[in-house]
Specification:
Elements (H helix, E strand, L loop, with lengths): L1 H34 L3 E9 L14 H11 L7 E8 L4 H18 L2 E11 L1 H6 L4 E4 L4 E3 L11 H6 L24 H26 L8 H4 L4 E3 L1 H5 L5 E2 L2 H9 L3 E6 L5 H9 L3 H15 L4
Parallel strand pairs: 1-2, 1-8, 2-3, 3-4, 3-5, 4-7
Antiparallel strand pairs: 5-6
Helix pairs in contact: 2-3
Length: about 300
């Protein structure tokens, strides 16, 4: 009986000690988390052609980034957020929608934004860079291209040589606007130029509102000509604020214990399998188009 009693007592003591140890470890972990001096800077990577995103497509769009942008601002303790940008541009509408979403949350959450450009932030890519309060680049980063371009092809002579007769029936005199299988019409080109100028003016107004007095007032015509610049030249024009990597700038701003916390979205199993097993005409054309965007900047 004494032996049994002693065994029960020992077991109860072990359980109590285990509970106390577990409680201590939990409290220690919570204490460390609460009082840790580590500073997390939520960071979102914006890489690719803008407006080509989809189930099987890489790229950036407002709908695909919506959850990630919300997550970017979910850490209440973060003093700021960061964007890593590598984009040759794309859709002006998607560029604007992405920028508006991020700026809306930044204003609401009272967060400062830092942008870090990798290879290129041109055209729509620079639109995204201008979301930031401060833009940092590499010595070799390509920045700018504040303009509008509408590339296309004409197949009039091709279908003639192939003996193909094009038949098209429309209701509305402008319904066949810029048809690549017909000769260019002066009124179509004129209309396209008007559309381009409207978008260009919107782009210029946006850049001015974001960069303000930082822009070189004597070089505004050059800045808004569609030209792009590399490294220090872009800084001299006011298109960027300095040269430095994300780790260098974050440490300088928030101390040595500050670190970037990447906000990303992993592909599902189905997306990974299909992206490697399927190869159709649409995906090939999309890759060619994407390559054309990058090739403008020698990439």
């Amino acid at each position: 009986m004494q032996l049994t009693y002693f065994s029960c007592f020992t077991n109860q003591t072990s359980i109590i000690l285990f509970r106390q140890s577990l409680t201590f470890l939990i409290n220690k972990a919570m204490f460390k988390k609460i009082f840790s001096s580590t500073v997390d800077i939520p960071t979102l990577r914006l890489s690719g052609v803008i407006g080509q995103a989809g189930f099987m497509r890489s790229g950036l769009s407002s709908s695909n980034l919506d959850k990630l942008i919300t997550k970017l601002f979910s850490d209440k303790k973060a003093p700021a957020v960061a964007l890593i940008i590598n984009s040759p541009g794309g859709s002006p509408t998607q560029s604007s929608l992405i920028a508006k979403k991020i700026l809306e949350l930044a204003n609401r959450k009272k967060k400062k934004i830092y942008a870090f450009v990798e290879d290129v932030a041109a055209s729509g890519g620079y639109w995204l860079a201008c979301i930031a309060d401060e833009i940092y680049i590499d010595e070799n980063s390509i920045v700018g291209s504040i303009g509008v371009i509408s590339p296309g092809f004409g197949f009039v002579n091709l279908i003639k040589k192939a003996g193909i007769e094009r038949r098209m029936y429309t209701s509305g005199k402008s319904k066949s606007f810029l048809d690549p299988f017909q000769k260019e019409k002066p009124q179509d080109i004129k209309r396209l130029k008007i559309i381009q100028e409207q978008i260009h003016e919107n782009f210029i107004s946006y850049v001015k509102s974001r960069r303000g007095s930082k822009l070189d007032k004597k070089k505004l015509n050059d800045i808004f000509s569609g030209m792009f610049w590399v490294g220090q030249n872009a800084i001299d024009l006011g298109l960027a604020d300095g040269i430095g990597t994300i780790d260098q700038i974050i440490e300088k701003k928030f101390g040595k214990k500050a670190k970037c916390k990447i906000i990303d979205q992993k592909k599902s199993f189905l997306q990974r399998r299909l992206s490697t097993s399927l190869l159709d005409t649409d995906s090939i054309l999309q890759k060619i188009e994407e390559k054309a965007y990058w090739s403008r900047y020698g990439l």
